[in-house]
């Protein structure tokens, strides 16, 4: 896993990771609550589209990031 404000990759440890967990894992949010808030407020994109569901499952090949910011790619 790469933790960087410049984007990068996030390697899965299982079949998927939820969007909120991914947002927290890369450091876009300090807590799970903050991550859920960011997602619900429309501050996060998945594959270039706004995402509003913190529980959305991300799988290998998906990209996510802050609106107008760097992106991370999910790796298996």
Task: List the topology elements.
Blueprint: E1 8-11, E2 17-18, H1 19-25, H2 32-40, E3 44-46, E4 49-50, E5 57-58, E6 63-66, E7 71-75
Parallel strand pairs: 1-7
Antiparallel strand pairs: 2-5, 3-4, 3-6, 6-7
Overview features:
single chain; 76 residues; alpha+beta; Structural Genomics Hypothetical 15.5 Kd Protein In mrcA-pckA Intergenic Region, Chain A; five-stranded mixed beta sheet; 2 helices
Give an overview of the whole structure.
The protein has 76 residues and is an alpha+beta fold. It has a single domain (8-75), classed as Structural Genomics Hypothetical 15.5 Kd Protein In mrcA-pckA Intergenic Region, Chain A (Roll). The chain contains two helices and seven strands, in the order ββααβββββ. It has helices spanning 19-25, 32-40, and strands at residues 8-11, 17-18, 44-46, 49-50, 57-58, 63-66, 71-75. A five-stranded mixed β-sheet has the order 1-7-6-3-4, with helices on one face. A two-stranded antiparallel ribbon has the order 2-5. A hairpin with a 2-residue loop joins β3 and β4 (49-50). The longest helix is centred in the middle third of the chain and has 9 residues, at 32-40. The protein is globular, with a radius of gyration of 11 Å.
